[in-house]
Design brief:
- By secondary structure, this protein is mainly alpha-helical.
- The chain has a domain of 50 residues.
- The chain is 28% helix and 0% strand.
- It has 3 helices and no strands.
- The longest helix is centred in the last third of the chain and has 10 residues.
- The radius of gyration is 13 Å and the shape is globular.
Length: 74
């Protein structure tokens, strides 16, 4: 099923995020975006702060090395 695309979440320019990595790790879309398939209209539902991301990485035993998500020197 294909849905029209409109950006809801925007990360800072110095943050690198890969949907492919998270998909490969079997992280469900709802974990970061809420229950999108149950919504007619999407809104920001989930905290995308650095603390929230670090907490998730720690819970899932994923790396918390700064350069995994940030390009140093920016």
């Amino acid at each position: 099923m294909k849905f029209p695309s409109q950006r809801i979440y925007r990360l800072a320019d110095y943050v690198y995020f890969s949907h492919a990595r998270h998909g490969a790790a079997k992280i469900d879309c709802a974990r970061c975006h809420g229950p999108v398939y149950e919504r007619a209209t999407l809104t920001k539902e989930v905290d995308h702060s650095m603390k929230a991301c670090l907490d998730c990485h720690k819970q899932n035993k994923a790396t918390v090395v700064c350069t995994a998500c940030h390009e140093l020197g920016q």
